[in-house]
Design goal:
alpha+beta, 7 strands, single chain, 201 residues, 6 helices
């Protein structure tokens, strides 16, 4: 999923105040773990963070079968098997934009079923990540996430790629992480060890 191609690629099939589930229109065109996406809801633009992705069969009685062939061979010989595949992904709602201002709060209403999902463009991403207010919602909904620290590392990598993870912001990020984990020194030390290679890229 190319964030520069700011076109809808999926739609919501399940929704709540704290997040939503979306299904991709093409099973092999989906966002990355930790990617920021947007959903338009009336006058608001909802921001969501991808924390789970799953590909499987669309038909509950048909399952992918190991053919011992490459994808190219299967596309040439049995293209129909790909028609039964689907990819869904789960997002946490981390805030919304209204009248040009971003609020790092739960939305007043959940996103609508069948609403289109877009990848956040570079400008939206830079504006959203300019403030660390989203971390509070992330930690507050950590029970919904399989591994919060993995998601935070993915976020650091994305911000580094966007060129907005400055030295000052790194210190602020670490400070917020420490506060939100109750100054868990062991966890902070392990997290920094894993984050260091990403910051050097």
């Amino acid at each position: 999923m190319n964030p520069m191609n700011n076109k809808p690629f999926s739609e919501i099939i399940d929704s709540s105040l704290h997040g939503f589930l979306a299904q991709c229109w093409q099973w092999d065109d989906f966002p990355t773990f930790g990617q920021l996406i947007t959903v338009k809801s009336g006058k608001q633009t909802i921001f969501g963070l991808v924390h789970q992705i799953q590909t499987g069969s669309m038909d509950p009685v048909r399952y992918p079968f190991p053919y011992q062939k490459t994808e190219e061979e299967l596309l040439r010989e049995q293209p129909q098997i790909f028609e039964f595949l689907k990819t869904t992904f789960s997002c946490l709602t981390l805030g919304y934009m209204q009248d040009g201002k971003i609020f790092y709060l739960m939305t007043p209403k959940p996103a609508k079923i069948h609403a289109f999902v877009y990848p956040a463009d570079t400008q939206q991403s830079k504006q959203f990540f300019s403030d660390l207010g989203y971390l509070h919602l992330l930690f507050g909904n950590s029970g919904e996430i399989f591994n919060l620290d993995e998601l935070l590392l993915a976020l650091i990598k994305q911000q580094k790629k966007l060129g907005i993870m400055s030295q000052e912001k790194i210190y602020t990020f670490i400070d917020q992480f420490s506060l939100l984990t109750g100054s868990d020194y062991r966890r902070l030390k392990l997290f920094l060890q894993r984050a260091q290679p990403l910051l050097e890229i």
